[in-house]
Amino acid sequence: MRKLKAVSTKVQTDDITLTPPPAEPQMIDRRTLKGQTPLLLAVLADHPSCVRRLLRRGADPNIPDRDGETPLHKACEAESPELVSMLLGFGAAVQRRCLQAWTALHEAASRDQRQICRLLLGAGADVDAANIYGITPLFVAAQSGHHKALSFLLSNGADINRQAADGATPLYEACKNGHDSMVALLLSHQADANKATTSGFLPIHIAAQRGHDGIVGVLLSVTSRLLVRRLGVSPLHVAAEHDQVETLQVLIRAGFDVNTPLSAERSALYRDGRRSALFFSVVNNSCEAASALLRAGADPGLDPVSPLLVAAGRGAAAMVRLLAEHGADVNADTPGRPTAFPPLLLLCMKNTSMLRLLLDRGCDAAACFQCEHRADTHLAAKHLSPDQPGIQFCDVLSSLAPGGCAEPVLRVLLDYVENVRLCSRLTELLDAQGWTHIKDRAKAPRSLKHLSRLQIRRQLGVRRLSLMETLPLPRCLVTYLNHLEHLD
């Protein structure tokens, strides 16, 4: 078989200059599944030479990804003035918005890029462009605490008092995030501290809520007290609700009225209808905050529900003592639930130490034995719930007897009453439980020692009794007056 001679296919190119064919438009701007073009990917990778070559070959700088972000957005995000300048030079649309209506200037402001902001504004960017929430680049700079971007935008005419969709201003956001220097800068440019949000909060309210004491102090002189009253909520309410004790004290020293009530509309937002700043502190069981308010003259009787009931219901003895010492009514009624005895006692049936605390502060123990059913046959049902309206005290004790709580409660109450008459329901209970010792103690007349003790306590008064441990009295007398031993 004849061997074939190999034929060379090599092309001589020594004297030929190769030039690549022009790029096909459908290829240079082809997008990934995420909507990203080669140009956008080059920007993300921060490759200026690649970006420049793609732009020179006709890549479209305004094709967005699936989020609506263009290469210019990504260049600002990458904090690259070089890429931004390059894209603008090849016709990037400076006002192009993403799906959230966020512009390139928003991106630059959010990263404190003053140089990029200058490039964008020079290319015609709107300094007050707002996204779908009404947030402008100035708002973003204030929110993020970016001093350079904020100063630059202000010097280029940004609207300092522009409000977002929720009514917040750049000042409000700076206060919210605790940017002291931003607050000072905005106020020096005449930012309005009296523009309220749709929720009725001023910058001082949000600063109080977050516990930014320094900012609260700065805002005091520029906040309208009249507007605060009209809005129906004091910064004191907000500080107390969020247990910002130091802020609370700043506001008290500044002269905010500790007894200013919530407006009816705001009070209705709470099931208990609370109105006072004190009530918020009691709900939080913050004795420090409550003490600051009470020392400043807070009235513990302003709310529909006594804060003392809240404290007693939670077993907060220190709070109960604090409120009682400042005049809280230990015999206050519960709205909508009338009882024949102080309702506070209902909350202490399983806590005899709390029960004694309230009785020592003047809670009416005698009312527990003033049953309306004096006949031999008691008219009330035997198993009434303690919170049933119009309930008698004997019915409460009868329901507690199976749990073993009734006997210690009766023993404590008898220490604080003189001669009482037991109704048929109580007599039936004592006989059924075999509590002859209690029945004997309740018999009239009570001992002279016991009656004398009650008379001495009555003469001393609640306030002196609360200070008895500090008085120069014999130990045995203090023990006697405090019911620490039974002398009848």
Automatic annotation (TrEMBL):
**Biological process according to GO:** intracellular signal transduction; protein ubiquitination
The ranges of the ANK repeats are: 34-66, 67-99, 100-132, 133-165, 166-198, 231-263, 303-335
- Keyword vocabulary terms for this entry: ANK repeat, Repeat
Q: Which InterPro entries match?
A: Ankyrin_rpt (IPR002110), Ankyrin_rpt-contain_sf (IPR036770), SOCS_box (IPR001496), SOCS_box-like_dom_sf (IPR036036)
Report the domain of life of the source organism.
Eukaryota
Q: Which residues form the SOCS box domain?
A: 425-487
The pathway this protein participates in, as annotated, is: Protein modification; protein ubiquitination
Where does the signal peptide begin and end? Answer: none
PANTHER family, A to Z: ANKYRIN REPEAT AND SOCS BOX PROTEIN 2, ANKYRIN REPEAT CONTAINING
Q: What is this protein called?
A: SOCS box domain-containing protein
Provenance organism: Myripristis murdjan (pinecone soldierfish)
Q: Which gene encodes it?
A: LOC115356546
